[in-house]
Amino acid sequence: MTDVTQQTGTYEARMGDYFALMKPRVMQLVVFTALVGLLVAPVPVHPFIGFVGILCIAVGAGASGALNMWWDADIDAVMKRTQSRPIPSGRVQPGEALGIGLALSGFSVILLALATNLLAAGLLAFTIFFYAVIYSMWLKRSTPQNIVIGGAAGAFPPMVGWAVATGGIAPESVLMFALIFMWTPPHFWALALFVKSDYGNADVPMLTETHGRRVTRNHILGYTIALVPVALGIAFTSIGGPVYLAVALLLNGWFLKGAVDIWRRDDADSEADQHAVEKRVFKISLYYLFGHFGALLVEAVLRTNGLGGW
Asked: What UniProt keywords are attached to this protein's entry (predicted)?
């Protein structure tokens, strides 16, 4: 770890440094999918309760990020894309990150239980535990299936949002979970294809390192094919409709084409254009998830006005 204090004197952490601990980019996706899960639920929620529920989910996501950065500080210091994070750069001390993560975890879960219901709070608590302990402390450094299994942590937010509104679990919330769960491996493996040396230098057993790029390309295509029926199936549930189906058909065709393009390439092709296709598919994967949940939100608004659904 770089000792910034020895090189430049004592560094006093700023609010932005602590905020960076909570992985704000990841938090945006968590908040958005949780909000959609809450709004598409068949039970109306008082705006203030909804606000508190989403706030707690956001804080819980931030807590997970802080705990992850605390545990992964050693490998973050090795990987180029993470060296500037608050802990390896010396802007925040590991003990501070641990304290913030634990405090925010307790605050978010307890407040969510008091403001909404025990199921929502329990799901949030399990999500934090899954990301910080099962994924970060165990799976990430022990198996090339880390992203596959660990993807569950990022898939729970819409289920939590649904539980905030309904106090229960339903096929629709499970399908939203499945959509994110199946999307996560091809999304991260596309990234791993063009930051391969980073994971190898940090001894993280990413699939690209343990089985090679050819196997990774095969897995990206396989998971994308398996993702398509999950995404399209949501269209025929109570939260789907023609607008969602049209968007899903477009996005799945786009994403599947990208997966096929990756599958057809080899290392020579990738190196020749500096991983242009892999980078493009990674960006497509971001549009893919936001597009699906955005379409669900549109369907919810239309249903409210008596226009949505089949």
From this structure: Cell membrane, Heme biosynthesis, Membrane, Transferase, Transmembrane, Transmembrane helix
Q: pTM to 2 decimals?
A: 0.91
pLDDT 10s digits, 208-265: 888 988 999 999 999 999 999 999 999 999 999 999 999 999 999 999 999 999 999 9
Residue-range definition of the domain harbouring residue 240? 170-310
| Domain at 234, CATH number | 1.20.120
CATH of residue 144's domain is 1.10.357.140
Same domain, residue pair 191 and 267: yes
State pLDDT tens for residues 152-205: 999 999 999 999 999 999 999 999 999 999 999 999 999 989 886 677 777 888
